[in-house]
Amino acid sequence: xxxxxxxxxxxxxxxxxxxxxxxxxxxxxxxxxxxxxxxxxxxxxxxxxxxxxxxxxxxxxxxxxxxxxxxxxxxxxxxxxxxxxxxxxxxxxxxxxxxxxxxxxxxxxxxxxxxxxxxxxxxxxxxxxxxxxxxxxxxxxxxxxxxxxxxxxxxxxxxxxxxxxxxxxxxxxxxxxxxxxxxxxxxxxxxxxxxxxxxxxxxxxxxxxxxxxxxxxxxxxxxxxxxxxxxxxxxxxxxxxxxxxxxxxxxxxxxxxxxxxxxxxxxxxxxxxxxxxxxxxxxxxxxxxxxxxxxxxxxxxxxxxxxxxxxxxxxxxxxxxxxxxxxxxxxxxxxxxxxxxxxxxxxxxxxxxxxxxxxxxxxxxxxxxxxxxxxxxxxxxxxxxxxxxxxxxxxxxxxxxxxxxxxxxxxxxxx
Length: 415
What we know:
Layout: H1 18-33, H2 37-50, H3 55-67, H4 71-84, H5 103-114, E1 119-120, E2 123-127, E3 135-141, E4 146-151, E5 156-160, E6 167-171, E7 178-184, E8 190-196, E9 212-218, E10 223-228, E11 236-241, E12 247-251, E13 256-261, E14 264-270, E15 278-283, E16 289-294, E17 298-303, E18 309-311, E19 323-329, E20 332-337, E21 344-350, E22 357-365, E23 376-379, E24 382-386, E25 409-414
Antiparallel strand pairs: 1-22, 2-25, 3-4, 4-5, 5-6, 7-8, 8-9, 9-10, 11-12, 12-13, 13-14, 15-16, 16-17, 17-18, 19-20, 20-21, 21-22, 23-24, 24-25
């Protein structure tokens, strides 16, 4: 069994109160210590359902299955544990004594070893000149032949030279929050920008906490012409713009998708009873299927007409945890997985109905250059993303330690 006070993130689950989760966990520990393994399994299964892919809950679930003689179930959870973090040490834990000599356990150890394999297919394009930019998103304005990068720390958008990396402020108003995603409309008249107040941004104040806005920016004048928001605590992390100028927005604080149409922003599809932390969103070519990544649970597809939702089942050997950026391209979903260890870029091949994943391919894995890559964008047949965002370079007070920051590096993968 794994005990970890630091990793018990009680407030993650929106379904059960933090106090109830804490009590349930404490009771599971008591059951384990009393060798009441039946109760230990029952409680741990509930915790795992409330908070999928939690490092402690997942570990303890594998332990509980083993202690109850459920070998196959324990091995299945251990595989999930390895795919989410292959640095977890479970090999010598006596909880797994009953299964350590099985072929299945040896296969899990082999899987753990192969997760360290270096796969390097993406190529570096350029290094940006602004060290403390902390980029999250990247986009390209084809008509203006302009590359843009969003900034979490500096609360702005910069343009940059695709060859030299020299940055210039493109939108740098004082009343803009940390900038996440950016997407232009089909005619490149407006740039739609997702912003949210984050402690990591310069001049953050407690009064900003929970505030988020979608900006509509005139590309020619570089002026904000409209701001959209909704009441409550929100983090607008990603957005997309359809051919008919309908804007969809994902919320990482409240599991909800929003829709901006006819200059009005409204809730569109709720994931409140099943989701946790919505991240990247993308849409198919016909614009009748919208895909959204939940950082803890995986990927869901929404039928744009009926609003029905389906959670995609992933093939054996891959996992849906930790997906930040998500891009659709030629019946494929490209997932930037920065919430797993090692970090990887995964291609998920959809079936013809686009309601299931048939196979997958790892495009990049365990690359030393990759440190929190986030959002990505397609330009022609190339996927562009920043390989390094310095989320880990902030201290407990969200102060950026410049000595731990490298200049942003733009990478691409060509199909």
